[in-house]
Amino acid sequence: MTDLFGFPVPVILGQLMLGLVNGCFYAMLSLGLAVIFGLLGVVNFAHGAFYMLGAYGTWALLNFLGIGYWGALILSPLIVGCLGIVIERTMLKRLTQIDPLYGLLLTFGLSLIAEGFIREGFGASGQTYPVPELLQGAVNVGFMILPIYRVWVIVASLTVCLITWFVIERTRLGSTLRAATENPQLVQAFGINVPLMVSLTYAAGVALAAFAGVLSAPIIQVSPLMGSSLVIVVFAVVVIGGMGSIMGAILSGLMLGIVEGFTKVLYPEASNIVVFVIMAIVLCWRPNGLFGKG
User: Fold this and answer.
1) Which segments of 171-288 does DSSP mark as H helices, in order?
2) What ranges in 41-68 are assigned the alpha helix state H?
3) Fold of 3-285
């Protein structure tokens, strides 16, 4: 193959494929943030901690209960979602009528507590998690040898993202959720339990983060700081897509993962800041984000 920008095409295509995998994680995490902010108005700074708890839940289920990857794929997000319900009912609901800054500070504090708790319980060093037997091996896609597990990450992430978008934007349940956030008194007058819907929405948002954590466990080391190192980038992704925009979170997450992968080939030193450069450009051009509404 010929070169492109002075680099072999297989190298560029391979890096773009890895960027797509990272973009899938960005999309899932930013989707959870967008769901929580768009429907509840909560800036959930603890999202990275829920991502980390999902990964640690997967590791703990295997090492302490003997429950493998496929069971953890269901149980870990479910457990973290239940934890989210407890947090929403006992803490966040008390902050709904005051400045959103208090919700941000609360969730930031919760993320520090979660990280400290995991560090004390399991240590600061990373834990490894094996790739499930069914997803081991690799396939030759012409320009690279692609691990089957990364193909699974792309398929699973896109499937969950599209299902979430469809439920919120194209179903009666999603319409009811949006109505409940805009006029809860009116919706409750029709016999709908709005507080329960709010709790379940928050649980669904954090469960998406936990699901991403389960997917990431066999790829990266499971560590207490894995969420905090990612949440700032994810917030930038949400801002670029538009705060509260479901499709914006998905598309901007995928796009920025690919751009980041391309930057690692052309100029590796800029790969850690390219997302924030794009965020600054987008905010100067469209302050509400690419898909946000005024």
Assistant:
1) 172-182, 184-189, 194-216, 228-241, 246-266, 274-285
2) 47-65
3) ABC transporter involved in vitamin B12 uptake, BtuC (1.10.3470)
Please choose, from the candidates 274, 292, 273, the residue with its C-alpha nearest in 3D space to the C-alpha of residue 283.
Answer: 292
Residue with tokens 């790969």: 271
List the one residue out of 28, 13, 35, 16 whose CA is nearest residue 251: 28
User: CB count, 10 Å around CB of 199?
Assistant: 21
Task: Give the span between the Cα atoms of 220 and 63, in whole angstroms.
Answer: 17
User: Is the pTM for the entire model greater than 0.70?
Assistant: yes
Bridge pairing between strands 3-4 and 7-8: antiparallel
CA gap 269, 144 in Å, rounded = 23
Please state, in angstroms and rounded to a whole number, the distance separating the CA atoms of residues 170 and 166: 5
- 232, HSE (Cβ side, Cα atoms, 13 Å): 9
Tens-place pLDDT, residues 32-73? 888 888 777 788 889 999 999 999 999 999 999 999 999 999
Contact by Cβ (8 Å): 262, 15 = yes
Domain ranges of the chain: 3-285
